[in-house]
Amino acid sequence: MRRVSRMVVPINAMLQSSSRKQRSDADAAFDKIVARAEQDSGGSSAGDETFLEEYRTLLREVATVPTISGLGWTGMLTDLRTRMANRFRVRRLIAEHPEIADEPIDRPVIVTGLPRTATTLAHKILARPEGNRAPLMWELQATDRFDIDERLKRKRRKVAAQMSAFGHRFAPSLKQIHPMEPESPEECVFALPHGRNLLVCFRLPEYRAWLDEHDYLADFQYYKQVLQVLQTGAPRKRWVLKSPYHLENLDTILKVFPDAKILWTHRDPNTVMGSWCSLMESGTALANREYDPHHIGADWIEMLSRMVDTARSSRAKLPRNQIVDVSYHQLTGNPYGELPGIFERLEMDWTDDDHDNLGRVLARPGMKRGHEYSLAHYGLDEDAVDRAFGDYTRMVHAMR
């Protein structure tokens, strides 16, 4: 499998000088993207100093990554600028329309589980019924009221499409492994300020250690504001949200959304690790001039097993009916038989429309995972995975 396009090498050579100069003064580069984010959003960074300092510290560490490529640096600047512009816009809209903060976010469904465990399938199916709603990729990147001008919506969809095309053009493997579709339901990580998603391209030991101790309460309170803004001017529906990284934040999520239902998908970690590392290698190959696949395996086996341990500890304190467990093998092997029961446990009706929609979702590009991967390529084997995840592997096999 070709990880990156042949265009990447000459483009990185062209960007090398300018990116090196910018990285030599990361603070100046950061100040420029803050100014651009304020201009793009019509908002202000004033009053958000803690958030800004966190991102400034993050960019300083990214600037020191010895293997970073020109495309990797440019991509990180664009990502942070987009996130800041969105945050400044959300804060401006709530300041201008304080009633937005009164929008209720009732009984959201939180889809989570280790990556590569059919969370995407579950998310797309659960978001489809008339009474449900999932944030789309372009909405998480350019959050605004539902009733904004249609021309502005089209413009923002176009920008999101261009960003997706950028990733697919330079890393063709991403389209096969995890296609990005601006007008499809997407993961919460596009709007949440922090998370392990910001580690998918670079090894950032200081940021990773900071995440291990980070209190995500403010992050999810902000994300609730994102949903409130998106809901303003639209019929109120039940939100269906998704991210594998939610596993390590179940306690925090339920502080912000106390009536949420958690749908947790389960799959053998040995399969998960190979598939996930393959996806991580595509991002790493694009953002770095060189890399060691064994580092990818070592980093992510530790992070993913930690996420599972944290989630299992959290769920022990929750009411039994607040979490719906789903076997990847049963869901993907018999989706028409499994989903009606899942809908019932989530207090939803399974209809003929849902049956028909399932066929359409299953037929979409990217729903059948066909890429090749190997645990050994990432310095892992089944014994190492079993040791890291402990009895969770046995629990998953018992569910099959």
Walk me through what this model shows.
- The protein has 400 residues and is mostly helical.
- The protein has one domain (108-399): Rossmann fold (3-Layer(aba) Sandwich).
- Helices cover 58% and strands 6% of the residues.
- The chain contains 18 helices and 5 strands.
- It has helices at residues 8-23, 26-41, 49-63, 70-96, 119-126, 137-141, 150-170, 172-177, 205-213, 217-231, 250-256, 269-287, 293-315, 328-333, 335-345, 352-362, 382-389, 392-399; strands at residues 109-113, 132-133, 238-242, 261-266, 323-327.
- Strands 2-3-1-4-5 form a 5-stranded parallel β-sheet.
- Helix 2 crosses helix 4 and helix 10 (217-231) packs across helix 11 (250-256).
- The longest helix is centred in the first third of the chain and has 27 residues, at 70-96.
- It is globular.
- The protein starts with 7 loop residues before the first helix and ends with a helix.
Question: TL;DR of this structure?
Answer:
The chain has 400 residues and is mostly helical.
Topology order in helix (H) and strand (E) letters: HHHHEHEHHHHHEHEHHEHHHHH
How many domains? 1
Helix content: 55-70%
CATH class: Alpha Beta
Please, what is the average pLDDT? Answer: 92
CATH superfamily: P-loop containing nucleotide triphosphate hydrolases
Please state the overall shape, judged from the principal axes of the Cα atoms: globular
Q: Please tell me how large the radius of gyration is.
A: 21 Å
How would a crystallographer describe the biggest sheet? 5 strands, parallel
Query: What is the count of β-strands?
Result: 5
Adjacency order of strands in the biggest sheet: 2-3-1-4-5
Low-confidence stretches: none
Q: Strand fraction band?
A: 5-15%
